Amino acid sequence: MKNIVLGLVFILGCNTHIWSQEPDALMINTFNRKTTSLNGPWHYIVDPYENGYYNYRYEPFDQQEQVSANAYFTNTKAKRPSDLIEYNFDESDTLQVPGDWNTQKEKLYYYEGTIWYKKSFDYTKTEDSNRVFLYVGAANYKTEAYLNGKKLGTHLGGFTPFNFEVTHLLKEKDNFIIFKVDNKRSKEGVPTLNTDWWNYGGITRDVKLVETPSTYILDYFVHLDTEDNRIIKGEINLKGEVNSALEVTVEIPELGIEKKLVTDASGQGSFEIKSRKIDYWSPENPKLYEVSFSTNKEQLKDQIGFRTISTQEDDILLNGEPILLKGISLHEESPITKGRANSRADAEKVLGWIKEMGGNYVRLSHYPHNEHIVRLADELGILVWEENPVYWTIQWNNPNTYANAENQLQEMIQRDKNRAAVIIWSMANETPVSDVRTAFLTNLIKTARKIDPTRLISAALEQSSNPNNPNIKHIDDPMAELVDVLSFNQYIGWYGGTPDLARITEWEITQNKPVIVSEFGAGAKQGLHGDKNTRWTEEYQEYLYQETLAMLQKIDQLKGMSPWILVDFRSPRRPLPNIQDDYNRKGLISEEGKKKKAFWVLKDFYDTWE
Ligand code: GCB
Description:
- The protein is α/β, with parallel strands linked by helices.
- It folds into 3 domains: 2-212, Jelly Rolls (Sandwich), CATH 2.60.120.260; 216-306, Immunoglobulin-like; 311-522 and 558-567 and 597-608, TIM Barrel (Alpha-Beta Barrel).
- 16% of the residues lie in helices and 29% in strands.
- The chain is built from 8 helices and 33 strands.
- The strands form 8 sheets. The chain has an 8-stranded parallel barrel with strand order 21-22-23-24-25-28-30-31. The protein has a 6-stranded antiparallel β-sheet with strand order 3-2-4-9-6-7, with no helix packed on it.
- It is globular, with a radius of gyration of 25 Å.
- It binds (2S,3S,4S,5R)-3,4,5-trihydroxy-6-oxo-oxane-2-carboxylic acid.
- (2S,3S,4S,5R)-3,4,5-trihydroxy-6-oxo-oxane-2-carboxylic acid (GCB) binds at residues 196, 366, 429-430, 489, 519, 564, 584, 586.
- (2S,3S,4S,5R)-3,4,5-trihydroxy-6-oxo-oxane-2-carboxylic acid binds next to loops.
C-alpha cells in the first residue's frame, strides 16, 4: 500500500500546508457588492471514513510536505491507463448549493459525516489590481476549503458566514474549489451532541465570489447615538493599503447628508452626523435609508433603518416608546423545500404568516438564520431576536469550546449589526445553572456589549419552583442580573401536567426587568381532532394556548413572547409513528403549511393585546 501511495505523490509545490488556517476578516454586506454566484450543482463525494483527507496512517494529507494524489482536494485525474486514482469528482453525482444534503438524496437523510464538494469555474477580474474573495454564507459544521489544490483554511460553525481571499490563487480558466464539509456532532462543539433539531449537513447558504478594489471597505457599523436619537454615529473599517490617511464619504441622500472622514493608519474611521429629520424605523414604519460609503476606488451602498432600543424598569422602549413584542419562535426550515431554508421566498412565506398572525416579532432560534430573512425583516418591520447556538449542555470548561462560541457570536453580530430589525442578541438557550456556565455566558455578554453597545442582551433561561409550593414559579438564575431582558421557557401543561395546571400556577417574578416568555407550547398533529384533554390533537394545543395566555397575562412585567413554534420542524428526538414521524409537532402550522386551531388563538390574543 505504502509504495503505491508514494508512487502517486503529487507535488503541488512547497508551502501548500503552511497556508493560514483561519478565514480572513469577515466582510459585510455582500448583498450590495460586486459578486458572482457559485450557487448551483456541485459534484460531491460521500466520505464517511474521511479517506480523502487522511492517509492510511490517519495523518491529514493537507499537513504533509508532499501531497498525495489520493487527497481529494488535489482533484487528481488518472492520466495514463496504468494510473490508480480511486475518486473522480466530475463523474460523481451533484448536490444543489445552497442546500442541505439530507433532503436532496434519500440515501443521505440520516447521514452525519464528511461530504466533499467540488465546483469548477472561470473568472476574469474587472480590474487587474482588484482582490477576489470566496464568501460562504454557511456550511454545517466544519469546513476545510481549498482552491486549485491549495488549502485556504478551516471554518467551524454551521450558521455563520466566512470568507477567504483568493486573489493570488485565482486563474482565468479552470479553477476548482473543493470543500470538505463535516457535520459530525461532537461533545466539544457549539452546538454540542444533543439538540432538538435536525443536524442538516452541507453548504446550506449562498456561495459567491466577491470582487473588491485592492483597498476595500471591509465593514461599517451605523446606528443612532443611544443617548441622542438625532445623532447618527458610525465606524468604518478599510483593508488593504491603509497605512496612509484615506478619505471616505458617507452619504444619506434622503437626509441631505454628505460627510467626509479620514481613516487612521489601521484603516479605521468614525463619524457623527446630526439630523433633525430622521424618520425612525419601527414595525409600523419600516423606513430604510440608502446609505453609501465611497472611497476613491469604491462605492458601497446599504439600506439602513434608524431606531433606538432600550429598557426602562420593566418596559422595552422602541424609539423611546413602550412596545409589546408579539412574536413566535422559528427554526430555519423551508416551508417550500422542507429542508434548511435559504431564500427570500422561504423568508417571505414565514414572515408573511407572522404578519397574518398579528405579530411584530420573531425569535430566530437556536442559531443565526440566513441573511435573507434578516434583511426581509428589516423591510417588513418585524423585530428580531438572534441567538448564538449555545444550547443545553455544552463544555463550559473547555477553552476551545468558548473560543468557538465567541467566534460564532462575533460572526453573527458582524453580519447583522446594521439591521434595525435586530433588537436582541441572545447568548444561549436553556443552559443549566452552574458557576462555570455563568462565567462562560458572562464573557460572551462582555464580548457582545463591546462590539455592539446599542442592542439588548438576553438568553432563554429556565424557571424554577418554590421549594414549599411547586405551583409558585420564579426565575432563580444569576444570569437574570446580567441580561437586559429576562427571558425564560416554560412548558406547564405539556412537559408538566395538563393545561388546567396553568390556572393554579402563580408567577413570582422579583426582577424589575421586562419579561419575554421565550417558549411555551404543545404538540399537535394538524388534522387530528379530539377532546381538549387528548394529547396530539389540535384541541389540546388550542386549550393549552388559551390557558397559558391567561396565566402569563398575570405577570406584571410581561412585555413579549415567542411561543414554540411557528412551523413543525424536523427532529430526530421525535420518532412517534403516525404523529411525529421525525417532526416536533409544536408548530402552529404544519410543515405542509396548514394552520392548526391554536394559530387563531394566538392571533386573537395579539390582535387585542395592549
Ligand atoms: C425547549 C427547547 C426547544 C425544544 C422545545 C421542545 O425548551 O428550547 O429547542 O424544541 O423545548 O419542543 O421540547
